[in-house]
């Protein structure tokens, strides 16, 4: 996964309605209208819009030397200066583990991140830092001990053991070894998967994380989709209830990469907002220029589902955040092809 940054002003777009233009009533750009107050598990629409309007994807910003997923990075102080100067309020994917669960065995992984969070909050206590929990588990999880509080959360007898990679896999072999031998997409319907995800979510919240991106949610719902997404509902409920007790402001924002536009169960949205790649459309006659257009490929604009949000307010379309995808460059650089 590549380190990247992207600022998405809300006054460009957060969501679109029935046509290609954004209704003026849906635009929230005025600084005097912004609010960043949230507590007790509730975030109002205005506050969520305010945060997403000042968002930036700053992958691994909270990660320190020895723990990076993408190699040595020497510009941390420059990043800190930039984020303070631009007034960013939502720092996306600031810490995560992509097949590096052993990081949780080293206290420095989270302690160093907490130090940076506290430094940033001294200047602006409203900043939200987002962690990411992605769609990968491997045999490396077998080295991570299950804390007593994980067993207790799930009503299980406490025992001394490590997490089990085998118990996180789809019983029918779906997406097993998807990332290579011994590295798979976990099945969220498996209890062991939810225990491991809960473990990571709580560890992150205890250092000051207030938002969690859950990666390709629907990929991990290979079984759960046929059970009304009961497993995802179970995990998110546990994470949010725990946040009420341990998160900085008793609140955690949960989102995922949702190509369907969102997951709605009995009229209720499971996630606070949707994240998705920008899907820029090339303008062939103008190199390095592109447009963001509804209905181009699988672009999310205008496609997010509506319902009652986890905070209790209703929306016709879920709010969303779009980012530059880290998939990689084209296999035909310098040549325009609107089909890819």
Would you mind describing this structure in some detail?
By secondary structure, the chain is of the alpha/beta class. It has helices at 45-53, 76-86, 107-123, 148-153, 191-205, 230-246; strands at 7-8, 55-57, 90-96, 128-132, 137-138, 183-184, 211-213, 253-257, 264-265, 268-269, 273-277, 281-282, 290-291, 307-308, 314-315, 320-323. Helices cover 22% and strands 15% of the residues. Helix 5 packs parallel to helix 6 (230-246).
Output the structural class.
alpha/beta
Amino- and carboxy-terminal Cα gap = 20 Å
SSE order, as H and E? EHEHEHEEHEHEHEEEEEEEEE
> In percent terms, what proportion of residues is strand?
5-15%
Largest sheet: 8 strands, mixed
Helical content stands at: 10-25%
Mean pLDDT: 91
How does the overall form come out from the CA principal axes?
Answer: globular
> Numbering strands along the chain, what is their spatial order in the largest sheet?
1-2-3-4-7-8-11-16
Radius of gyration: 20 Å
Number of helix segments? 6
Poorly predicted spans? 1-29
| Number of DSSP strand runs | 16
Summarize the structure.
The protein has 340 residues and is an alpha/beta fold.
């Amino acid at each position: 996964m590549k380190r990247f940054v992207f600022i998405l002003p809300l006054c460009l777009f957060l969501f679109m309605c029935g046509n290609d233009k954004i209704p003026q009533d849906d635009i929230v750009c005025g600084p005097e209208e912004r609010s960043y107050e949230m507590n007790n598990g509730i975030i109002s629409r205005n506050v969520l819009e305010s945060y997403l309007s000042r968002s930036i994807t700053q992958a691994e910003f909270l990660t320190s030397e020895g723990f990076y997923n993408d190699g040595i990075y020497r510009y941390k102080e420059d990043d800190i200066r930039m984020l303070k100067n631009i007034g960013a309020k939502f720092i996306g994917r600031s810490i995560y583990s992509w097949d590096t669960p052993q990081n949780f065995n080293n206290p420095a992984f989270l302690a160093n991140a907490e130090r940076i969070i506290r430094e940033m909050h001294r200047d602006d206590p409203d900043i939200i830092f987002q962690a990411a929990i992605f769609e990968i588990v491997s045999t490396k999880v077998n080295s991570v001990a299950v804390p007593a509080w994980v067993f207790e959360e799930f009503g299980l007898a406490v025992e001394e053991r490590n997490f089990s990679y085998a118990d996180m896999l789809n019983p029918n072999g779906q997406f097993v070894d998807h990332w290579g031998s011994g590295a798979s997409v976990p099945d969220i319907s498996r209890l062991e998967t939810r225990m491991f995800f809960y473990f990571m979510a709580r560890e992150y919240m205890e250092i000051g994380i207030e938002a969690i991106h859950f990666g390709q949610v629907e990929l991990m719902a290979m079984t759960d989709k046929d059970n009304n997404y009961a497993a995802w509902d179970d995990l998110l409920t546990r994470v949010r209830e725990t946040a009420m007790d341990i998160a900085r402001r008793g609140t955690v924002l949960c989102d995922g990469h949702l190509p369907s536009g969102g997951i709605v169960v009995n009229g209720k949205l499971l996630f606070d907002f949707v994240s998705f790649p920008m899907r820029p459309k090339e303008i062939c006659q103008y190199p390095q220029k592109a447009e963001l257009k509804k209905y181009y490929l699988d672009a999310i604009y205008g496609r997010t589902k509506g319902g009652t949000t986890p905070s209790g307010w209703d929306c016709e379309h879920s709010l969303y955040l779009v980012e530059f995808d880290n998939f990689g460059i084209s296999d035909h650089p310098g040549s325009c092809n609107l089909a890819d």
